[in-house]
Amino acid sequence: MTPKHFKRYLVTSALPYANGPLHLGHLAGVYVPSDIYVRYLRQRGREVISICGSDEHGVPITLKARNEGISPQEVVNRYHELNKKAFRDFGISFDIYSRTSNRIHYETASEIFKTLYDKDVFVEKTSEQYYDEEAATFLADRYITGTCPHCGNPGAYGDQCEQCGTSLSPTDLINPVSTISGSQPVLKETRHWYLPLDRYEPWLRQWILEQHREWKPNVYGQCKSWLDQGLQPRAVSRDLDWGIPVPVENSEGKVLYVWFDAPIGYISATKELTPDWEKYWKDKETRLVHFIGKDNIVFHCIIFPTILKAEGSYILPDNVPANEFLNLENDKISTSRNWAVWLHEYLEDFPGKQDVLRYVLCANAPENKDNDFTWKDFQSRNNNELVAILGNFVNRTIVLTHKYFDGIVPEITALTGQDKAVLEEISTIASGVEQSLELFRFREAVQKAMDLARLGNKYLAETEPWKVIKTDAERVRTILNISLQITANLTLLLDPFLPFSMEKLRGFIQFEGRSWELIGTPDLLKAGHMLGKASLLFEKIEDEQIQAQLDKLMKNRTENGETEQLPAPKEEITFDDFTRMDLRSGTILEAEKVPKTKKLIKMVVDLGFEQRTIVSGIAEYYEAETLPGKKVTVLANLTPRTIRGIESKGMILLSENPEGTLHFVEPSAEAKNGAAIN
RNA sequence: GGCGAGGUAGCUCAGGUGGUUAGAGCGCAUGAUUCAUAAUCAUGAGGUCGGGAGUUCAAGUCUCCCUCUCGCUACCA
Fold this sequence. Notes:
- The structure is a single chain.
- The protein is an alpha+beta fold.
- The protein folds into four domains: 3-119 and 258-323, HUPs (Rossmann fold, 3-Layer(aba) Sandwich), CATH 3.40.50.620; 123-194, CATH 2.170.220.10; 382-518, CATH 1.10.730.10; 575-664, CATH 2.40.50.140.
- 42% of the residues lie in helices and 17% in strands.
- It binds one RNA strand through helix 6, helix 12, helix 14, helix 15 and strand 22.
């Protein structure tokens, strides 16, 4: 639990995927916590490096490139630079921000693959996958479209139908079409290498479930869930032309699967940073910590450690403080719906306020469960905490010092019991912050750190220097000296959280100290020291600014919202096509939920000429008991299909709203059972 | 359906190994104060700790059942 036995720290932050810009969810979940952590460690003088970079391989990038008519490299170049700049702008202090399209990464990933290959770690398997004969290439799932077997959407992708949300495999699609050439793909055998996670399961159980019980509950639980469900071998290669070529013979057209090479990017980046990289990756006295979001838990807790373990010479992560997700104004952040706050846009609207966002995201970080970011909360934390508590204390201290002592730190004349208690309290607060940080409890840490500013305000309120000055100027010297010491200590204590503001504050008081170990020192500022020029540390955020952000979000929502969610018009058909469908009016006689399913209801429907058993996935929208007597439209000549052991003869027609709710298409009351619909 | 994570004051959250009147911040009310960006300080009101049963001298904290939210997974128009 206590990290004392570690000599040095290797901190990694999830490599952002280089096919889009960063939003505040990324910052809150991964980069703000990791940056606070490494800044704190540096300040303590610990040996630490912070590693990050762009993850630049994988199918989505090739798709984006294809859509825009540019090369994958151009896509990743664009977002690598954009995201690198966003991190820099927000003071995320990586020691290196690398990228997985670098040569050194190709070498590192290839080497590790080779090592595992030579050790016979992989299993080779042949399977059938779609192949585009015109383009002479295997097709990734996303490159295949076809008709969804479930909802009939003709534009479903090979991995998922975006209309009904079902996840698919390419062979499920009806009439599959290659999006590359438009031709009909054929199934062809292909050979791939698999990482046999199942063989490492006993070891993983031991290592995680026994030896890392201290991991956060959400992380530990997620791992347990995966382990209990049983691990399967996972393909480490793919047929694709964008990525790291599989470094063995007879592997033309095959690259490493992006999940295999991405985490190795941490290693390559370390190599790029320092020739001394091995002491970080191979010395047991290094503490490896991965900061990630919850979507990455399986890769960092199960797959990557398995790779490292199989390789044999690397250390394993000591902790993986994964955060949950941040919602935005009560809704999931969504890139495709443009429901997000983009980092570069934030800085345009709130220039110079990166610390405000860092603060709010830390204080409200989704550490244990999904959390909600609202602009109103952003405003109130800024106005009530940063401005009113921290900024205000600093300001009143500096203003009083200028007013009474011309900006020169006055000397201590005599210490009262209260003065001593306040000075001692500084160290107590600091050690509380330390404890929280060591346990990755960042929201608690920042809360505790702010207590020092609260203490300062309380001290001023109780000692009332503005009153005492009229009767006892000597006493005021001590009071302001102590207030200034608190201010100087604040610059140290809050620096990991608010680096820009503390830099500014150091300028206000002309203080140079940086070391964490100085915290608690009662004379950081010597008597006679001249303060610098000061201004306001934080400013209020007005309602109009908040409303503008809300309006911007709502505008985006209506623009790419509901209308685009409606399915695209289908291609024209003939009357003949239509008449092939035998649509009938019917009435539900019986209905019961199919046991052990979430969505299925089994119904008996009266079609006049006969009674049919039909299974339908509507249990999430209708109670079985309410259904008997309901009139429905039935597609009567659909090929029967056995679902959960029940033969379903026909299909009940339902309308589906953009948000996914289902509603019966009901014939009017006069329609008799079995009446044809045409 | 299976697995996992959650459901604690109006809001956001803390609550090692069960033990006196369940905590913090914000919000709210009242009072004090004016050095300060009408900021600050003090006091107070507010909780059947999702519901039920059980173990125990004693449960927010352990066991079981139920319920709601989120994630993964299965099944599925």
